[in-house]
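hey m, so remember when u said the tokens were messed up on ur end? i reran from scratch. heres the input so u can diff it against urs
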Amino acid sequence: MDRPVPRLYISDLDGTLLADNAKLSQTSRRGLIRILEAGVPFTVASARSIVSIQHTLGDLPLRLPVIEINGAFITDYSTGRHLIVNDLPRDLVEMVYGYIDRFNLVPILSAFDGRRDRVYHSRLANPGMEWYYNERKGMNDNRLTPVESFPLIFDSHIVAFTVIDTRHKLIPLAERIQGGLADRLESHFFENPYSPGWWWLTIHDKSACKSRAVKIVAESGGFDLKQVVVFGDNLNDIKMFQTGCHPVAVANATDDLKRHAAEIIGDNNSDSVVRYILRANGLES
């Protein structure tokens, strides 16, 4: 009997592997441990940071690098050491900050200062920003670093701007970024599902994208892209679905993403990603 072709599985977190409460269910946790102990290659690709990924997934024995902040970092899960840093060049940092300031908005900057990760923040201008801060404070995130003036830290490796406000206030900035700088920047504009009414605009270098990171992780593991199965639910997964991998959308995914999927499985509250991998590898109990 022919052995199945080895596959690499890469899953988004929020809305895909995680349930609506932003947690990994005990059923999925037990299933992932079985998957990993059986030697099935698995990792995650998320908009979250390594601090948040570790806080959420805990002691799962992930041996492959994880993709964090939408591809801004490719990172060793157990140590938190960055293997790849896709930061913004200084001219783009200054340009993006100038636009944000011109629209009277307040950013949060994610960075690597050469020694450790930082989340630089100044005043918390609205409840959406307060939610962001309190969520990270609650997980003892030591990246939080107050600054009096953002230009003072522009020599750090800035990997992302996060701008949080109402949709109405963010639209002009989003249009400016997604229009004139689309050839140099990746950006994502979405409502925070855990803090309804507050929208986020995240801005990264063009090299910081899940699609590019998936290719790097696959190549480093010796996998052809046709051997890679990716799971997702939202717009920031579209390019990942277009890499030549086998794209699988959860039932709660956006219609736009489903149009790019080869398969649609159950929703994120039904442990669908883990059940799919268990079944595909003959590991169902």
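this time it looks ok to me. The two ends are 21 Å apart (CA to CA). if urs says something different then somethings off w ur setup not the seq
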